Fold each of these.
Amino acid sequence: MEANSDPVSNLDSAASPGAPPAAHEAIPPLTLPTPAPAAAPAARTAALLPGRRIKDRPASERPRERLIEKGADALGNDELIGILLRTGLKGANVVQVGQELVDRFGSLTALARASVEELKTVRGVGRDKAATLVAAFALARRMARELQREAPLLDTPEAVADLMREDSRVREVETFQVLLLNTRRRLIQTAKISDGTLDTILVHP
């Protein structure tokens, strides 16, 4: 008799008569390795850490170098003010002091109206820095007045409003002013007649 070469058949024939067929061995479930938790994002670069001195930053992040390379319009108000202040204080760099000034006064217009004593109430701003800011804003106002002296044509209400807008922004009280024009409707002089009170302005004939 020829031997059965089928191993499965041999196993089947070896089983006891009437015994239940052997159950197939259960395949263990596939367990995927749990991925390691993602690494925490790296901290902000040292150059951007609050309080880091400006001179320790890369040149591309220093306000003065950025102004030279890209122009003043590329800088924020805090950076431009920082250039004027030049130095910060322990724990806050000069740009942060500039931002504190903007935050404290609420706007550049209010900041431009501030006195030396008012500016000195901001931490990191002493007498010299306050005087520098007052001088810078005074120069800006004088420049605006020089532009006005170029005898602008005032032939529409809009032209008058544009002329007076910059001067009005820095005044703390309402004023009554007269614009003197030549026969070609070009400005000769601006004359202030009186300053207003809380709710009234007096104009004498």
Note: Residues 150-205 form one domain.
Amino acid sequence: TRAFYGIVNASSQLKIPPDAGDFRLLDRRVVAALNALPERNRFMKGLYAWVGFRTEFLPYTPQARTAGSSSFSARRLIRLALTGVTAFSNMPLRIWSGLGALVALGGLGYGAWIVLDHLIWGDQIPGWATLVVGLMFFGGIQMLSIGIIGEYVG
């Protein structure tokens, strides 16, 4: 969990304390602000920081669970982590943009290799070069464009 909060804090403007618990004492104004938000998949620790009210921490020692076990499965924890990263960070969009640029550059590099291969050794498979280079280049450009548009919207 500390690694997760480190990733969220490094990739967003919000700072979520890694040792903040899930139990809160909230003022009525904070509750009203949280209820006014349209989010369906809520990462509450991020929303508490995002609404912008003053926060005080009360130290306490949590007691060990006396019965039962956590209802969060690994799948739900992963979903919660993805919601936390995507809701308060542009990092996934930047990664997507960078990946798109790499794929487009890879397509151009592969195209240059195919041209050199044809000029030096005379090897050629009809249609293969244009198909692969075109797909890689334009696929990369699409990924880059989606990342840029997402960055603008996000």
Note: The mean pLDDT is 83.
Amino acid sequence: MTMHRRQTPREFPPARRPLFAPLLLLASVVTLPARAADAPQPGNVAGPWSDYLQAGRFHVFSDSRIDREAPVWTELETLPQRVEETLGLSRQTTTFRVYLLRSRSEFQSAVARRFPDGIDRRALYIAEGDRHEIFVYRHLEFVTDLRHEAVHAILHAALPYLPLWLDEGLAAYFEIPPGQPASAHPYRRRLRWDWLLLRRRPDLRRLEGIDDPMALSAADYRECWGWTFWLLGRTETRKLLQEYLQAIAAGDPPGRFSDRLGAHVADPTAAMMQTVKSPPSPSPRRRLWRIRLPFPSRR
């Protein structure tokens, strides 16, 4: 069983990581509203679940009314295709269960019954066999949390395994909603401070050597995103990443990704740092604003 869990603070210190723990089954009888009579039952997760919605491959159970007009459900429905097309993965049909709680206290209560160590988290993704479950509660950034854990679910349903750095990097990469540039992620600004103030230099080989999620620091999570952001932003490196994931999907030993990368890019670290450091292109609105409101001349 694999568990990914979301930390409470925004910058997600090292605690956002998978956990391996025995699964405690809970027997429960769940009654869904009449409009959800044909809905699948929410497994062995105790409710009460009063509302249900299907968003593509995601079956969402909630203990309060679901706003069906919220754009998050359309985003969630299209997320598997977005991930699979970006990464060159074959289309999957695996379904996922999402448990949406009304508050942090309800989330903690639901999680404590099965995973006491996860009660201080913002969200959890749990995989056991062919069952994929996501726990999340309503708060200002729950949509971002839901995207993050949903990407973990999509990846683990499509691939037999995934290196830790890439698993976390991809989950963070797709946190940004469709229509916004990947460069809008707050990790970009924090990474530049890591390099400037902490004198940290990115090291993909070092990240590849970390297979214990408990060993990842907050800065490591940001670096995982940085590598993924850079790789997917270039045609050549995106193709390398797609070929690497396809080898994993086929069951072929892929080796270290850094070896493949080094054979095609002379200095990957410098190239990645340059991309992250470069300021994003100004939006048309910002350029128009500059035209309308020029700086006053000095006298």
Note: Residues 1 and 129 are 7 Å apart (CA to CA).
Amino acid sequence: VEIFFLCRNSETFLSSIIKTSQLIQSGSPKIYRLNAVTKITEGLKTVTVGTKNVNRLNRTILLLGETGTGKSTLIDLLVNYAMGVKWGDEVWFKIVEEKTTSQSKSQTSDVIMYQIFGFGGKTLPVSLTLVDTPGYGDNRDGRNDDIIAERLLKWFTSHGGVHKVDAVGLVLKASDNRLSDRLGYVFNSVASLFGANMEKNIFALLTHSDGGPPDNALTALADAQIKYAKDEQGEPVHFMFNNRQSTPRTGRYTEALKFAWDFSEDQMKRFMEVLNVTEAETLRTTVEVINQLNQLKECIINIQDKLKLIELKKTQIDQEKVLYIKCEEKMKANENYEEDVDEPYKDKEPIEGGSWWFFWVKGATSCRQCEETCHHKCTCTFLNGYYCRIFDDRGHCTVCTNKCEREHHVKEEWIYVPKTRKVRKTYEDIKKKYLEGLEGMEKHSSTLEQMQQEMEKLLEQEHEGLEKSLQHITRLESIALNV
């Protein structure tokens, strides 16, 4: 973008930026909206100012906080600091768009990445990438927060996304004396996405500061047991910012506003100095953490299905015992006997899903041999979930009972669900089962023994699922910041 080249003749750097920016408020300071390019792809929104220089070092900062904490102003402050804007310039630039109420409701799940390029080292020798999560805490339930976590994972794994993080900023007001349950959940849930080494890269960014000690906010973070960076003395690393940079400079408040400007500029300088000596964390561990969490979730679902089958099998055994005794008694009296009993089976239950052309959008991946659903919310776009993450390097499923090969799996708009159905049992049925047990199975002397073996097999599978879950938990404890 032309505004970011050094100006020719007598034009200054800022005046060239002003020429292509939109004046949104006159006075002192004059407020301009920067000329930025916005792209939105599958919920991933990118706002870019300038042209990327692949030879220039980039710093990536992820900002977390509830609506109303001043994240937008903090992002604008980072941009103006990078541009080298000073008090005497009497200008202020904005990059964050102020949303209307309707926009806030409809766009709360957008994760926004601001890319700040081309300022030629005016203040910083690096370019900036700022990742904002504006939707955290905007609704009354946690569903939107889960959506944002998924969007963050997309940024971490996509080709043009974020693959390292220099800092995670926990944004809250300096006067906050406690963290809401939602904010504590936000900080901890995002921290759980990162590896154990990420703690040194997490900083408290305290807004609306008057320059005094932020005891309230630091105590609130400590009470909520939030993990973030500590200095050599064990004190929490934090930076304070005032939100008055764009306030009109009139009358007796000008001196106070000048102090607020200088204070925030000094804090920003300290923040950048700390970033310069803090090693960035790659997100390879983060991706492994997410995969471990997803596999753990599928293991838990599989265990829950096994528990349902165990209960159903127990009921069937109890009913079979009663029926066997009755039939045995009636056999002695040469009477036929019939009775309805419950029999467990697997049914296919439709789910929401579908495909577009030759690519799947949503569906579930199931094993036809084991009659088990291995991945309930599979978003793999290839037919039959060929590249679904449940398959290991050998092409075997890591979830279904027999660890079947990929070819035995299908991706469809249904899942297997354990159910029961009424079947009519008679003495002849019991006798037939009894003879089959004698003739066909050396280890079983009766139908009840066969059912008991099935029960033991289910219990063994449940135990294996618990062991697998424990392995995932143990791995997460060793690599994740929060478990």
Note: The radius of gyration is 31 Å.
